[in-house]
């Protein structure tokens, strides 16, 4: 997702200095006019805003806090904006390290899909104080259309955990409802239309599934394996917060069970197929 | 819900012959021009279409199959349309009894709220063959705006079970997500807005809860007690169909636990308050 | 189970008048000296104690309350002892019908296996008042070694529901623990021995499973299908009592899922194999 | 638990060199003849076997792997025996560090209670190769009566996770069964006796609960908070192993919910009281 986001920034007039372990991606950005940095340190030095977009918590901590990492090289007056989806405790550790060195920090995880990022229509969940937000807002405007301020640094990451817990658990609920309905003899078109016209309507069934698994497409937009990790972030947060999530726990266990199978690497909308498999029925597909 | 529905029928030119144990309701319909029947038998005799709208399966079976009930009195060429929300096996028994006597039958449970019924904007889930559907369609058009054909007789009841299972389980998922987010320090407005702009969007949080519990209104539109009964219909159907619903079962248990408390008679959107109570936090409310 | 129980009664000097739809079973008892009755009515008339042992609630209600059933033919001073495992509400209905006619009633479901019944070593859970208990005690002594008084009529059935809920849910817990341990590389012998020597010890793993599934024997002593029905009795009782059973609900869903597969007709100790199948591992077996 | 264990060692002729942050405990052992070490390094140097017994994974890693810790000071031919209950991945890291330096290592977590440790009746779950096991066996014999070899280093920790997952989940099952039975009107004595005489029998109800919560004693032998952490070890192991534990997940969520309340610091047998509180009933107690 970093490539379309930075492409938008470069195209809209920001002067990028990019670094990635994948040289091909750097070349694509260089073709748009970006400068290729030689290292993390080289990319960080001299920047007004350093943007990190990395797979998981350990990567962010290594890149930011590591020996010759961002914090060791960033300019005194610069802002660090982490857009990765990571554990909020990791975000807090990075935020504290920035605060200790007087570096402004904001966490801005991204809430929509790659296709939105390509169109510059991403959604951002921003944890930042006001002055830092004002400094990164032009970049966010260049990459997305929905900017949600969620509170102080760290609250962007927390909002992302809640958002994904909600949508992933709803996905499994839809899978169970449709599997039962299919076994009761209802057509998928009927179930889609009726539930779409009541308060049963939801983005997982009526936006995600109708465009993915219900068309027979389970190529991974977001794998069950990654979804399990996001569910785990929520369950860990619940444990830390001393709050029981009985339905969330049941859904987490289903994702956990799906990971024991070939479903691990499929799109998480394939939860429907997993439910149908366990029920011994053919999964429903929308008529073309 | 029977009163606003029959009021619409009478107002739009249908000639009603009504019977209800509550004389007051019959008077209201008589004021609109309906004839007050003296008994179930009197209401059934001579009608083109007999409409039943009753609380639960035993009422429907008693009224339709009872000694001096509908089937004992209905005209040979008439249609029986049951609009109650009942167990699909009950619907099947009624349908079979009608078939044995050559009476056309359709099940048409209603999928929206009283306020929609008042405006003639109800949604119907129709189990019927084509000729029977054609005969009742003018009545449905007079009462609602969304007519969904779900298959043969009995499939309307099945669709209703799935629809309510889906929306009720999603409601509990929303309750857990918001309780956790609140404990993590997120504002309810932020959670509403962010989840509303991603595929986490759903009718329970963004239509129901924002208008009920999140405004502090838990007066019952649909009580947790009734919601539990609908969840039980789904769990029973799952048992009959030999399909495990792990997340549904967890949600059913939560509704079951809520019924042990004062929450039993509150609106089911109060699942949020129940989750917050268990978590030891004040439930969030939207700012006015 | 009725055959070994009545065989013990006949052998130990009670004078039986037996009726069964299966003539072969009546012949076996006749060979021991029992009289073969021509009908339910014939079996009931003139008896001091009428014992019923039937598969499920509807059979008991039909045999006892039916037109030419037990209650229509039983002597005024006789006792009805129902030893079937049925829904406690069914027991209550039978008990009320007896009370209305002045017939003494007791429910005595059986808590061990066929092999115990054969040896006259059954366990009984008795719901009865004192005089009725005194009258049936000699029969219970002839059939079993453990007699537990559980309270008034109906409490025997309730105790049976709790007992089976507890043991069936523990069985699934054992299945999950062993499946996880197996995946972690632990030997089944090690797991059996260690857990058997701590408070993790339990009759499902250390008595049932070591003698059934862990020896590769999943021939049905008690099928998953029947186990599901017993779990359903508990979940229904929980619903009536307004009590949420989150772990029970999860276990009920697992039994429900197992019923969708070939496991339906296997011994319920095969829950272990079901858990291993879902985990993608070979189920452990004890070395001979 | 370290104090009674080392007291037994010293009393039975082993020559201890002890270190603890709590000077009082060292004094108690010195009174039995042990030498008080000045530091971890001082305790490790010159020993044949170094025994660690610490609260959690980070403590073990700090004490063993830290700058002036055990590995930096242990003799070349010595054995490190860790008896702490920790995450198996932590055990593996310590085992690897030992292997790299040629130090023999064994993990031997303890499976019974403080009262057993005091009597020298502990149970051990040993992960070790044969030569290492032979060297520590005399110490284990001095401290306990049940020694279970579980496999290579690391398997002791894994066995402990399984053992505690099993007993803790069974405890919650018992809590639900007894809460439901109580609400159905059954006496606790009846439930204890009947379930104790069938395969529903288990160490949680029939050994733990009858001696703790059912006597009104919920002073912590093992708190719900600690129990939650052990459940979390199992759930994390399940996640790593890609195995879904639906009933375990539900139980984990119950422990998680109990931690949000005053129950956090009570003995985990108080799960029964937690279940009864949610059900709105007084928890049962055995008659004196």
Automatic annotation (TrEMBL), chains A, B, C, D:
Boundaries of every 6-phosphogluconate dehydrogenase NADP-binding domain copy: 1-148
Keyword entries, A-Z: NAD, Oxidoreductase
GO molecular function: NAD binding; NADP binding; oxidoreductase activity, acting on the CH-OH group of donors, NAD or NADP as acceptor
A Pfam family recorded for this sequence: NAD_binding_2
NAD in keyword set: yes
Residues forming the catalytic site: 160
Domain of life: Bacteria
Record domain 3-hydroxyisobutyrate dehydrogenase-like NAD-binding: where: 154-273
Name this polypeptide is given: 4-hydroxybutyrate dehydrogenase / sulfolactaldehyde 3-reductase
């Amino acid at each position: 997702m970093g490539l379309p986001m930075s492409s938008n920034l470069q195209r809209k007039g920001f002067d990028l200095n990019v670094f990635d372990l994948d040289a091909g991606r750097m070349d694509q950005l260089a073709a748009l006019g970006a400068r290729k940095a030689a290292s993390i340190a080289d990319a960080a030095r001299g920047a007004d805003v350093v943007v990190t977009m990395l797979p998981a918590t350990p990567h962010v901590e290594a890149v930011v806090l590591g020996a010759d990492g961002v914090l060791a090289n960033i300019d005194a007056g610069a802002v660090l904006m982490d857009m990765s989806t990571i554990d909020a405790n990791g975000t807090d550790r990075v935020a504290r390290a920035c605060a200790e060195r007087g570096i402004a920090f904001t966490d801005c995880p991204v809430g929509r899909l790659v296709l939105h990022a390509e169109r510059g229509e991403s959604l951002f969940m921003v944890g930042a104080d006001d002055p830092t937000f004002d400094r990164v807002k032009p970049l966010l405007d260049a990459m997305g259309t929905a900017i949600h301020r969620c509170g102080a640094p760290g609250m962007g990451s927390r909002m992302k955990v809640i958002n994904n817990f909600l949508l992933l658990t709803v996905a499994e609920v839809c899978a169970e409802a449709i599997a039962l309905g299919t076994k009761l003899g209802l057509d998928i078109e009927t179930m889609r239309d009726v539930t779409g016209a009541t308060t049963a309507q939801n983005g997982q069934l009526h936006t995600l599934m109708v465009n993915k698994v219900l068309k027979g497409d389970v190529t991974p937009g977001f794998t069950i394996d990654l979804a399990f990790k996001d569910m785990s972030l929520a369950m860990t947060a619940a444990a830390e917060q001393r709050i029981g999530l009985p339905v969330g726990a049941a859904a987490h266990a289903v994702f956990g069970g799906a990971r024991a199978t070939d479903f691990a690497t499929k799109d998480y909308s394939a939860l429907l197929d997993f439910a149908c498999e366990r029920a011994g029925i053919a999964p429903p597909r929308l008529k073309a």
